[in-house]
Amino acid sequence: MQKFLGFFLIGLYLIILLTSIIFCGISFRYPVKYENYIDYVCNSFDLSKHTFCAIINTESGFDKYAVSFVGAIGLTQLMPSTAEYICIKNNIDFNQINLYDEFDNLYVGGMYLRYLLDKFSNKYTAICAYNAGETSVRSWLKNPEYSIDGSTLVNIPYKETKNYIKKIKNSEKIYKYFYKFK
Questions:
Q1: CATH of 31-178, one of 1.10.357.10, 3.40.50.720, 1.10.530.10, 3.40.50.300
Q2: pLDDT at position 177, please?
């Protein structure tokens, strides 16, 4: 009996240790930084926190100083021209925006995501547009090879965007499972 209890306690300890290691790995690979700002932006634009965090993590890994090879900036990897466009549409003075500032970048990125979600009836089509651009996605939706109904993409012609959507969907699942947002 005492031997069984010893094995049971060792097994329980190993399970707790393994769970801790897995969660530490998850929180390292799928972090949540700037949670107050994310809450504010998601509440302001009626966005899913799990989806927004998945986009931020996929875009920049939560690195506010990230710059892509094409010039996209910050946490949500906004092109300056896109950020300026969405600011003008929302009567915001773009000259007052610093895309390296975590709040400004998240706010404009959230505003842009909301704009795309309003333009496209399917969430993942809107997220494709976040990655590949609105013009590209509109042309794909007109092509029966890529869309049957003109609103949902059944085939994504850009390999980068196809991989991007897979990453977003996987990240969303992890954020939903491991993070219980308010």
A1: 1.10.530.10
A2: 85
CA–CA dist 61, 172 (Å, integer): 14
Question: Is residue 172 annotated as part of the catalytic site, yes or no?
Answer: no
For 100, other C-beta atoms within 10 Å of its C-beta total 13
- Paired strand residues for 78: 73
Domain residue ranges of the chain, discontinuous segments joined by +: 31-178
Q: What does pTM read for this prediction?
A: 0.84
Over the Cα atoms of the chain, what is R_g?
A: 20
- Among 57, 51, 95, smallest CA distance to 76 is for 57
Which residue has 């496209």 as its token pair? Answer: 120
Q: What are phi and psi of 133, to 5 degrees?
A: 105, 145
- Cα pseudo-dihedral 34, 40, 43, 45, rounded to 10: -90
Amino acid at 131: N
Q: Which of 59, 134, 160, 172 is catalytic?
A: 59
Q: For residue 111, which phi and psi values (nearest 5 degrees)?
A: -65, -40
CB 108 within 8 A of CB 81: no
In this predicted structure, the answer to whether residue 111 has a pLDDT above a threshold of 90 is: yes
